[in-house]
Amino acid sequence: MGVKILRMKAAVSFSCVTLAVGLSAPAPAKTADMRIEQRGRWFVDQSGRVITFHGGNVTLPEFDKPQQPRWTAETPVRMAEQGFNGVRLVIFFSRVMPQPGQIDQSYLNRIAKAVAAYKAAGIHTLIDFHQDQYSEKVGVRGMPDWAVFSDGYSRMPGVEFPIGYFKDPAVQRSFDNFWKNHPVPGMGKGVQDLYVEGLAAVARRFRDEPAVMGIDIFNEPATGSRCAEPDPAKANCPELEQQLLKPFYEKAAQAISRAAPRMIIFVEPFMLQGALGTPINTPIAGPSGRRALSFHNYGPVKATRDRVNDGALAHVIRSDAAIINTEWGFSNDPAEIVGQAADFDARHISWLAWTRGSFEALVDPKLPNVGNGNRVAQLRAYARPFAEATAGTPVMMSFDPDKAVLTYRYRTQLGNGRRAAGGETEIRIPAIHYPNGYKVAVVGGKVRSAAGAPLLRVRNDANAQNVIVTVSRVGVLPPLPPSEGEPDRKDAGLRTLPPIPAGPLTRRSLIGHIVVTPGGRALLDREVPGMLQGLSHVSGWERMTFADIQRFASGTLTEEKLRQIEADLATLHVTPGPVQQAGRLSIDSMTSDLIADPRARAILDREAPGLTASGKQGLFPQTRLRNLQPELPGILTPSVLARIEQALAALK
Q1: Are 519 and 600 part of one and the same domain?
Q2: pLDDT (tens digit per residue) in 331-370
Q3: 299 and 264 part of one domain
Q4: Which residues of 142-178 are buried (b: 16+ CB within 10 A; e: fewer)?
Q5: Of 368, 364, 376, 302, the residue nearest 334 (C-alpha)
Q6: What residue numbers bound the domain in which 514 lies?
Q7: What is the mean pLDDT of the chain?
């Protein structure tokens, strides 16, 4: 029962720029070992061990296009090297059933090929029937044209995702008619009936494939024309969960179960419940042992995210269902990603992230880095060591990314009450955090894997009731390389804004014009915390006004609040004319960009002495100067930031 300490040196060759590592990917699991089931809130394998997933959302590869930018033959292996063991494969009903009642077998073949590629790297696949604003015809993507019944409404021009859910009658009526199971001409069946046939066809194809963890029935279902309010004060409509979701999920679950009796059935809450923090009481479907909740959490405020996580977890415990978060992230701020991942770890919730750029490009250096910012910084944030298989029941897991120290404690009693005496726990070790190897300390067990193994295996001592595993990095990480990717796309629209008009800013000004005005972004962050971060998920946010936003957040943007904002806006100095955001340096520029500019560097050295020599230099390539303030409060005081902003604004 003493502490066993092993020093393990990984035989790796690591380059920050290429992410090339010598660690081999974990050996693919045997087919029998990959079958998972549901037991209470947990996923479990065939021996009863608790299974946890970390990974991301991926698109269906175009295997016949070797030069396509989102896939290489090495992509699954690169994922496994960084410790990821699950993907959510996005597919579309429009491709599954392009014509009523006709299944496209070639599309299913492509899905099968992708599943096999990930399986070979030891990665499970969740097949996601995806949609965004119903369909390409009225919204973005998902449903085929023949499944669109919009009651004569056409797409509303100028309405971008996701505003169409709340403003566009074409999107709303299409959902209304889906829930009503609108008849499909010439078929003698409704649109929902045929959708369920598509689910069953995919389930039947993968009924004997243990690497498919299950089917996500419907991505972010919308309420249609009822309760179409992204305001938490108005968006809680629990009766619609029972009226719309319950009968549909039960019908879908029955069809999937007939086609694939061992398939886990994943259901989702209504769209935006994970962002607004409204109570989640999603009707769970499927028999015990094969039911799970797939929820999303994009809340820009931690208190909201905590409420969503805690509410979802409480719901599955009440409902006898496993839990997994299948969308979160969508940020290029590593600190934000680290914080959200820690929230999931603290609750032992599996997760599959939705990154700002493609998840495939995040892990595979052969792919163009579009939208992910500094690839290495982002990968360090997402890739975390974790117990993918626990011979017992998880109790506590935490990871310090700065020191790369994982602490994991679990009870040796399995969920079925049996003691997992002699059972093995498997911990994934991402290469990017341990370029020189790692040390392991174990209480209550013994290390069974080879030195430096990417899959750390710990066997429980025969009489142990609890096991504690501590993993720590040997040596230090290399500094972050400069970002070679395209800029964060959330500010790209600012470059296309119309000229800023003369006169003071008001509630009717474009949000983008406020953001590019010196002091404007800080004003918005102060008066409406989290608003800009939340809007970054909305296409065209920079052309919205407070009047647009108030329609969806009247509980927050009260008339009193708007008057206060308008009074503050009137104090800002406005420079009429073309928007200069693209080339202008400000405290919202990346710190590394400021340091690279000799004029800006001189301002920083004068106003914030000690900044460029601080121990936080590793954050500079990925962090805006303003966002460094919590890390360097003694150097970047509010008055210092104000002087820097004023001096930068004077640069020509």
Answers
A1: no
A2: 777 888 999 999 999 999 999 999 988 999 999 999 988 7
A3: yes
A4: bbbebbbbbeeeebeeebebbbbbbbbbbbbbbbbbb
A5: 376
A6: 488-582
A7: 86
